[in-house]
Amino acid sequence: MKIPFAIFDVDHTLINGDSMFLMLFFAISKKVRLIFYTPMIFLKILLCLFKIIDIKNVKESIYAPIKYLNEKQLEEFYDKVLLKKINEKVMSKLNFHKDQGCHILLVSASPEMYLHYFLKNSSIDTIIGTKLKMLDGKCTNKIHGKNCKGIEKVHRIKQYLNENNLEIDFDNSFAYSDSLSDKPMLSLVKNRYKVNKNGLEIEEFI
């Protein structure tokens, strides 16, 4: 079934900031001892900048504290941190497209483990993010499959479409992102918009 979609990136688009680092700081606020992870994280960021290790290795280090947060705390992170970071301009666009009959899809490189709380907002139909491995019923910091970034976002969206017998109405669909790395995802729709890093402007993505 062909339907119109409105697809939104999350970090620096739907929210102001990077949820990955917001989660890290939130976890440290809950368990101060987790601050001892930070030297290793910054070292790995530096090694990644020099292309000694890959981004997956860095992200798994940043995600390490998530192992110590339970479901209640992850929901608190959404309620008390992420909701306060919502970009109201982008959210108004999201609500507008929902009212116009679009299927609303959030697609992010951040973990589904906490992004799924965005589904508490009835305007949002689906979230697609990086999956983390589970061990004995608990979340780990290890990425399951591929980091949901760049072309992987397109693969995951197409998987979702196939599983739900859906097709994007190209001419009547929209996508929003702050990043050039999302160009493959933006190519799925005709109407593409860039959200500036300051979150104050939305302009046509060329």
CATH H level, superfamily name? HAD superfamily/HAD-like
For the record, the CATH architecture stands as 3-Layer(aba) Sandwich
Structural class: alpha/beta
CATH hierarchy, class: Alpha Beta
N-to-C span: 29 Å
Number of domains: 1
Largest sheet, described in full?
A: 7 strands, mixed
- What helical percentage do the residues reach? 25-40%
Number of β-strand runs: 9
Radius of gyration, rounded?
Answer: 17 Å
DSSP helical segment count: 8
Quick tags:
single chain, 206 residues, alpha/beta, Rossmann fold, 7-stranded mixed β-sheet, two-stranded parallel sheet, 8 helices, 9 strands, globular
Describe the structure.
- With 206 residues, the chain is an alpha/beta fold.
- It has a single domain, classed as HAD superfamily/HAD-like (Rossmann fold), CATH 3.40.50.1000.
- It is 37% helix and 22% strand.
- It has helices at 19-30, 38-49, 55-62, 71-82, 88-99, 112-115, 151-163, 183-186, and strands at 2-3, 5-8, 103-111, 126-135, 138-144, 167-168, 174-177, 191-195, 202-204.
- Strands 5-4-3-2-7-8-9 form a seven-stranded mixed sheet, sandwiched between helices. A two-stranded parallel ribbon has the order 1-6.
- A hairpin with a 6-residue loop joins strand 8 and strand 9.
- Helix 2 packs antiparallel against helix 3 (55-62).
- It starts with a strand and ends with a strand.
- The relative contact order is 0.20.
- The mean pLDDT is 95.
